[in-house]
């Protein structure tokens, strides 16, 4: 399928939304307690998608035998990915956070080899090496001086967050390949968001004044409804319009945009290590993805000639 002006515009909009989101999340974490924020974000996004599902007149409630796997998936995504990411971003700049979390496709290359039996090709291996070199470059100042601090801890947790994102993606491919993706995300968000919300109320302070501040609420609603709910719906539409590979590669500029927004808007420092590391990681992701497309295209050509 070819890309038309609507698809290109949608991709550009999605990249701008997700690219700018990291800085806004970093900003809002100075206002809201981290886990109360992430739980409200997930719940609002889930409810937004539920409204969309109602408008589309599609099924909302899962079947009884679907709940166990939905709960596992929700734990992987909401606790393994969103909660760890939000916690770590308190100590790491937004642009660098995006770069570290977007190592997810590299992790997928390894996990898919063993779990989905997708062959780990030589180019995927080269991509892993490039990604690893990028991580070493970014973490080198801390590793070089062997000084453990909250910044290093945050960076390690963000990489772990990307790893859990990869696991949840593999889990979806294995068990929810043909499942309604909007309904799937509704319950991913609501189950995990609800549990995190309960724990947040138990262990985090609740200052009602900040929740009734108009500017804070506007940012929160943008992150939740636009950056999470709407962006997910837009992403699904893009994938339905073009090849999945094209859609995946098209959003690889998000970490670069995050670094740009972080530097220009939030005045975050761009060190040489971060720039070099980001380039290596993006090269690794691109190289790993390109091989998958090349192989699939070759198989399609063989099939067409039969």
Automatic annotation (TrEMBL):
Domain of life of the organism encoding this protein: Bacteria
Keyword Transmembrane helix: yes
Gene source species: Acinetobacter boissieri
Any single GO CC term annotated in Swiss-Prot or TrEMBL for this entry: plasma membrane
Topological category with respect to the lipid bilayer: Multi-pass membrane protein
Protein's name according to its UniProt entry: Permease of the drug/metabolite transporter (DMT) superfamily
InterPro entries attached to this UniProt entry: AA-Vitamin_Transporters, EamA_dom, EmrE-like
Keyword Cell wall biogenesis/degradation attached: no
Alphabetized UniProt keyword annotations: Cell membrane, Membrane, Transmembrane, Transmembrane helix
């Amino acid at each position: 399928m070819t890309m038309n002006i609507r698809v290109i515009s949608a991709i550009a909009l999605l990249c701008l939304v997700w690219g700018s989101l990291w800085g806004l999340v970093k900003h809002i974490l100075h206002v809201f307690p981290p886990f109360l924020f992430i739980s409200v974000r997930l719940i609002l996004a889930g409810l937004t998608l539920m409204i969309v599902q109602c408008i589309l007149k599609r099924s909302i409630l899962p079947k009884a035998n679907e709940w166990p796997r939905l709960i596992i998936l929700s734990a992987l995504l909401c606790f393994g990915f969103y909660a760890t990411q939000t916690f770590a971003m308190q100590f790491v700049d937004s642009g660098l956070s995006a770069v570290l979390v977007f190592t997810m496709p590299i992790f997928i290359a390894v996990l898919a080899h063993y779990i989905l039996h997708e062959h780990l090709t030589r180019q995927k291996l080269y991509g892993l090496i490039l990604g690893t070199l990028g991580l070493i470059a970014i973490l080198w100042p801390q590793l070089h001086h062997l000084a453990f601090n909250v910044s290093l801890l945050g960076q390690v947790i963000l990489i772990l967050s990307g790893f859990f994102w990869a696991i949840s993606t593999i889990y979806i491919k294995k068990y929810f390949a043909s499942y309604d993706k909007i309904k799937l995300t509704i319950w991913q968000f609501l189950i995990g968001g609800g549990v995190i919300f309960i724990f947040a109320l138990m262990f985090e302070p609740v200052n009602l004044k900040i929740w009734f501040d108009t500017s804070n609420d506007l940012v929160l609603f943008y992150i939740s409804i636009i950056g999470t709910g709407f962006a997910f719906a837009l992403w699904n539409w893009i994938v339905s319009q073009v090849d999945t590979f094209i859609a995946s590669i098209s959003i690889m500029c998000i970490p670069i945009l995050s670094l740009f927004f972080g530097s220009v808007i939030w005045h975050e420092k761009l060190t040489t290590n971060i720039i070099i590391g980001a380039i290596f990681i993006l090269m690794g992701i691109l190289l790993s993805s390109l091989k998958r497309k090349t192989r699939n295209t070759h198989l399609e050509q063989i099939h067409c000639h039969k």
